[in-house]
Amino acid sequence: MAKTPSPSAPDGEQDAPATVGKGRPTPSRAEREAARRRPLVADTKEAKARARAEMAEKREKARIGMAAGDDRFLTPRDRGPQRRFVRDWTDARWSLSEWIMPLMLIVIIIGFLPSTGWLVTYSFLALWGIIFLVIIEMILTSVLVKRAAARKFGADRVEKGLGWYAAMRQIQMRFLRLPKPQVKRGAKVD
Asked: Is the entire prediction scored with pTM above 0.70?
């Protein structure tokens, strides 16, 4: 719309014609989207350092919680009262199984020794004998832990896989087990 001359303006002198519209072209859709676009994550070094520190803190908290056996931080494989019972039951016992890895390492070292053919032969035979005993111990552990869980939780409420869980935990050396053992060896587990 054109402006009408203001009454204070002298006759013959009028203001310059006013601009119509906003005085600039309408931005295209691409220009509007580009102006509105922001990074989803801040790119600043401080933000990255802060995020890295927060993640490290969360990981450390989760590691401590898992080592302590806190259910919130355990993997689904390790959660629940029955799994806790199996862990405690296994950790309270002495077993030959947890020594299988160090024994294998010793046999490998003996195999590299020069001119000990008879020692290598007997060490391999002994290792195979120990592996056979460990397999028997794993089967026995599986049966015993299932029986103990059935007594404690009821035969109809026992989870699947408890025997395998106990046998696999038993093979690991005690100081390498996660979650860390919560009971001492020889402790009574009910």
From this structure: no
